[in-house]
Amino acid sequence: MKFRLLSKYFPTEKYLKPPHIGISFSDTNIKAISFDKTSKNPVLKNIILPLEKGSIVSGSIVNENEVVKKLSEIKESLSIPFVFFTIPDELAYVFSTSITVASENDMTEGVAFIMEENVPLSLIDTVFDFEPTKIVQTEGGYDVSVVVAASAKKEIEKFVEVFYKSGFEPVGCVNESQAIANALVPRKSVETLSIVHARGNRVGIYLVKNNLVRFSTLRNISGEDYKKQFLDEYEKFLEYCIKYDTGDERAIKSVLVCGDFEYAKGVVEVVAKSSNRVKDIKLSNVWTNVFEIDKNLPTVPYEESLSFAGPIGAVLSDII
Questions:
Q1: What DSSP assignment string belongs to 32-64?
Q2: pLDDT of the residue at 2
Q3: What residue ranges do the domains of the chain occupy?
Q4: Which of 11, 44, 84, 251 is the least crowded, having the fewest Cβ atoms under 10 Å away?
Q5: From CA 269, how far away is CA 271, in angstroms rounded?
C-alpha cells in the first residue's frame, strides 16, 4: 500500500501526478525502470547497478555516498526527475488487525493505538499506512478490519535524503511486497493467492487478497539446501494463513513466483514436486498490468524481468 502519512516528505502539492520512475533496493544492487503507464505499448528503460558490499545492509542504508552515487547514475541514464520507490521487505511490517472506533474519522488514531502491539518500535519512531478491508457499524460505532504497513521513520528519512542528494524528487513510496503485488496481480482481482519473491540470500512470501498484501514473511536462506529451507518456510506460511486469515488450506488458489530467475525457477520446481497443498504454482508475468504480453514483445529479457517486479509496481503505484 502507499504510505499516505509520509506525504509531508514529498512535495506532491507542486505536481499533478508527474511521470515517475520506479526504484527498488537490495543489499547488492539498485534496480530502476521507466515507462509510460498510460500507453498500450510503452517504451521500457531499465537499469541495474551493483552496490559496494555493505552499502545497504538488511535493507538499511549504511554507505550514503555510495547509494547517492548510484542514484545519480540512474537519474542521468533515465532522465526523469521524479521517483516512486519501494521500502525493502526487511524494513516493512505488514499485518492485519481489527479496531473499534466511534466514527470512521477515528481510524488513524485507532490504528496508532494498537501499533506497538504489532510493531517492535515506539509510535513516535514509526510511520504507517493502513487500508480498511471491512467496516461493520455497531451500536457504539464501527468494527473495522484493516491491513497495516509500518516502518521505522529514520529508515524512510534515509531514503528520502539520498534521493534529494542525487537530484531526484521523491513523490511517493510503497512497501516492497505491495509493489510486487501491484505488478503481478491483475487489477481488481478478487482471488486469494500467494507471491514468492526469491533471491539468492533470502525469500519473501506474501498473502494477497483483493490485490492487497495482507501478510508477509521474510527468511534469510542460502546454500545447497535453499529449496529445503524454502519449503520449510512456505509450510509455516500456509499454517499461519490457515490459522489467522484464510481458515482453509484450499483458499490459496495459486502461487506467483518472481525474483532472481535461477532461484525463482528452483522454487517452482521444488514446490511442484514436493508440496501436495499447492496445486498451481508458476513463474509470473511482471507486465500483467502494463501491456498484453501476447501483443507486445518487451525489450527486457524474461529471465531479467522477473527481478523487476518491485520497480514496475512502484511505477504503477498512484501518487496520493
A1: EEE--TT-SSPPPEEEEEE--TTSEETTEE--H
A2: 47
A3: 4-90+153-178+307-316, 92-151, 185-305
A4: 11
A5: 6
195 touches 258 (CB < 8 A): yes
> Taking Cα atoms as reference points, which of 4, 12, 6, 46 lies closest to residue 29?
46
Q: What is the pLDDT of residues 110-166, one digit of tens each?
A: 999 999 899 999 999 999 999 999 999 988 889 999 999 999 999 999 999 999 999
Pairing of strands 126-138, 82-87: unpaired
Sequence-separated (6 or more) residues with CB below 8 Å from residue 108: 5, 130
Angle CA 44–157–178, to nearest 5: 45
Would the CATH topology of 4-90+153-178+307-316 be identical to that of 185-305? yes
In terms of C-beta density within 10 A (0-12 exposed, 13-18 middle, 19 or more buried), how is residue 299 classed?
exposed
Lay out the sheet containing 202-209: strands in order across: 212-220, 202-209, 192-198, 254-259, 281-283
| Interior angle at CA 134, CA 99 and CA 137, nearest 5 | 70
SS3 call for 222: coil
Instruction: Match 512470501 to its residue by C-alpha cell.
Output: 205
Cα torsion for 258, 259, 261, 262, to the nearest 10°? Answer: -110
Residue appearing with cell numbers 500500500: 1
Query: Which of 202, 199, 211, 219 lies closest to 308, judged by CA?
Result: 199
Domain 4-90+153-178+307-316 in this protein, CATH class: alpha beta
Q: Is the pTM above the cut of 0.85?
A: yes
Three-state DSSP class for residue 197? strand
Range 92-151 has CATH code 3.30.1490.300? yes
Degrees to nearest 5, angle at CA 96 with 94 and 101: 125
pLDDT of residue 39: 85
C-alpha dist (Å) from residue 104 to 5, 107, 135, 143: 17, 6, 9, 10
Fold of 185-305: Nucleotidyltransferase; domain 5 (3.30.420)
